[in-house]
Specification:
The chain is α/β, with parallel strands linked by helices. The protein is 49% helix and 15% strand. It has a six-stranded parallel sheet, sandwiched between helices. Strands 9-8-7-10-11-12 form a six-stranded parallel sheet, sandwiched between helices. Strand 11, helix 13 and strand 12 form a beta-alpha-beta unit. The longest helix has 25 residues. The chain is globular. It starts with a strand and ends in an 11-residue tail after the last helix.
Amino acid sequence: MTKTALLLSGRFGKGHDTVAEACAVALGRRGVQAQIVDSIALLGERRARTGEWVFRRLLSMPPVYDAFHFSQLRTGARLGRGADGAALRNMYPRFREVVDRIEPELVLSVFATGAAAGSRLKQERPEVVTAVFMTDSFAHRLWVHDHTDLFLVTSSLAAASIRRFRPDAVVEVVEAPARPAFYDAPTVEEARAALGIPLGVPCALVMSGSWGIGPLDDVARALAASGVYVLVVAGTNERLQRRLQAAAKTDPRIIPFGYTERVAELMAASDVVLTSSGDTCREARVVGRPLVLFDVVPGHGRENLMHELELGNAWLAAPEPASVVAIVHSVLEQGDVSSEPADPRKWEQGFIDALERVGVTFEPLDGR
């Protein structure tokens, strides 16, 4: 019976953490003590700060990030492999300290750097089950290693991208996970009452990851001027939060938030969710809200964007106020385009079944 699991996340944005948290809840309901560890922190504080600074700089220069992603990471070219190898060498001693302390029977990586560590551990401790959960729509080479027992993905496209590098890989397609709060989101009436938004008026949620990427303040002002109540989340972007607070003083239909755990409630209050490609899309689909997507995340973000559009109930807008306003009002004029909220049992059961097929065993579901 599996008693402990180590989940390797990564601090670049909040998306990896939300996947890890959803997995930890599903495992915990079946008697497994799951500990989440930040792969970037395992690099050591100085290297972690440097890595995050480099990643933010690359994101701020889309042509450079696109070039790096598509020429190095996606193909596993020399520079990409070198960066992965250097990260593994630096993190592995700290990773082994964690492994020796908690003695996990399962190591599940939801971040590519963690995937390399899990694969290396498998060579030393073959009794440990090593798995990767990739919610991106297409794998780059750093996700795929020879000693990973199981790859969990959310589409047949992603499965094919894994097998490009390992034709013999065990790959399972499962539902994309979300944290319990999104499956238990309040009703529209409850959410709007809590936020002070009248029923019957148009309302949009605007956010773009935990870093608040893109011209969200300009978009919020334009939407509010067009008669839409705007819930807008700056995340950890303090400069953006200050601009939004200033905008809210001139238009009360703008309701700003910094980093918040109330996203499920904000989605429930909204008619439409405006965001970049990423884990917010999955959460909005769980709540049942249509998406308007910004093309503001380069590299893997462009791949994820195309997949979200393919899934349906999603529209694409240029990250410019006029484009966003036109698209949002077009969606609103179509009436209620919300979908049925998702059932958490579906993704959890697929996740657990896939792990059982590679030898992980569980206690019966505890009913929580």
